[in-house]
Write a structure and sequence with these properties.
The chain is an alpha/beta fold. The protein has one domain: 3-Layer(aba) Sandwich (Dihydrofolate Reductase, subunit A), CATH 3.40.430. Helices cover 27% and strands 23% of the residues. The chain has a ten-stranded mixed beta sheet with strand order 1-9-10-8-2-7-3-4-5-6. α6 links the parallel β5 and β6. α3 runs parallel beside α5.
Length: 283
C-alpha cells in the first residue's frame, strides 16, 4: 500500500510539499525519473522536440488540462536541487543545448545553495560524442563538478576534441573529470560506484534517456522509479513511421525475472499523476 497519497492543489507546488512527497528512507539511494504519456511514450522522436518538456505538456501554457506540467517541472528541479549527483546520457545534451540539470526556480536554487555542497553533473557517452563546450561541462560560477564516463575509444575522441579547442583558445574554468570504464560500452556499475566512492554520492538522480535507463535497470542499480503520467496519448509511431520509445529501451526481462515495483507514493496535480515505485529485483 502506498505510504503517501497527495493532492497538489496548486501546480506551483511548494518545497515543503515536494520534500514530504519525495522523502527518502535509507542511503545510498538511486532513483530514475521520467515522464511518459498515458500510452507509455517517453520521447516524441520528432525534429525540434526535446522530449520531456513536450511529453509533460509544459508547452501548452493556456490549456488547463496541461497545468500539471508545472508540477512535473517543479519535481524535476527539486531532484536537481537535492541530489548529490545527476547522471544523464549524451543524447540529452544533443537534444537540449542548454541542459545543465541546475534548478531555474529561485527557491530551488536557494535550496541547493543552502546544502553547502557542490553537486556532480555526470554524462555517459560510450563514443565520446559530446561537445565539451556544452554548458553542463562549463559551470560559469563553479556551481557543480562535471564528470564524463566513457570507453577507451571515447576517451581518445574526447582528448582530440580538447586539444582542438585548446588550439582555438577555449579554456574551461574546470575541465570535466573523465573516466574510461569499458571497452565497447560504459560499465554503469563502475560509474555508479565511482560516484558513490569518489564523490560521496548518497542520493543519485538518473535522468536517462531510455537507453541509459534500460542499462541501469538491467544492472539492478535503481532503487526507485519516479514516474509522471502525463494526460496525452501519442501513439507508438512518429511522423516518419519510426517507433517511439518508452522510458526503457534495449533490454529484455522474462516473466520469471522481470523486476517488480512496490507503490510508495501517488500524487495528483490536475490531470497529471505522480508515482513513486520502489524496485524489487527477482534474480
Amino acid at each position: 500500500m502506498a505510504r503517501t497519497v497527495q493532492l497538489f492543489e496548486d501546480p506551483n507546488v511548494s518545497i515543503d510539499q515536494l520534500s514530504e512527497f519525495f522523502k527518502v528512507e535509507g542511503s545510498p539511494h538511486t532513483y530514475l525519473m521520467f515522464v511518459t504519456t498515458i500510452d507509455g511514450i517517453a520521447v516524441p522522436l520528432e525534429p525540434g522536440q526535446r522530449g520531456g518538456s513536450e511529453i509533460a505538456l509544459r508547452h501548452l501554457t493556456d490549456n488547463p488540462i496541461a497545468a500539471g506540467g508545472l508540477t512535473d517541472n517543479r519535481a524535476l528541479q527539486y531532484g536537481w536541487a537535492t541530489a548529490d549527483a545527476v547522471l544523464g546520457g549524451a543524447g540529452i545534451l544533443r537534444d537540449n543545448p542548454a541542459a545543465s540539470w541546475y534548478p531555474r526556480d529561485k527557491d530551488l536554487q536557494d535550496l541547493l545553495t543552502k546544502r553547502n555542497r557542490k553537486p556532480v553533473r555526470a554524462v555517459v557517452t560510450g563514443r565520446g560524442e559530446v561537445d565539451l563546450k556544452h554548458p553542463v561541462f562549463n559551470p560559469k560560477k563553479d556551481e557543480w563538478q562535471p564528470v564524463i564516463f566513457t570507453t577507451k575509444q571515447g576517451e581518445e575522441k574526447l582528448k582530440s576534441q580538447a586539444k582542438r579547442l585548446q588550439v582555438q583558445g577555449f579554456k574551461p574554468l574546470q575541465p570535466a573529470k573523465t573516466y574510461a570504464i569499458g571497452d565497447t560500452s560504459v560499465d554503469l556499475t563502475k560509474a555508479v560506484g565511482i560516484l558513490r566512492k569518489d564523490y560521496n554520492t548518497k542520493l543519485l538522480d538518473i535522468q536517462g534517456g531510455p537507453i541509459l535507463a534500460g542499462g541501469v535497470v538491467k544492472a539492478m542499480l535503481v532503487d526507485e522509479v519516479r514516474l509522471t503520467v502525463s494526460p496525452q496519448i501519442m501513439g507508438d509511431l512518429n511522423s516518419e513511421g519510426k517507433r517511439r520509445p518508452g522510458f526503457l529501451t534495449g533490454i529484455h526481462f522474462g516473466l520469471d525475472d522481470s523486476p517488480l515495483a512496490e507503490l510508495e507514493a501517488i500524487g495528483v496535480s490536475m490531470s497529471h499523476i505522480f508515482l513513486r515505485y520502489l524496485m524489487n529485483y527477482r534474480n
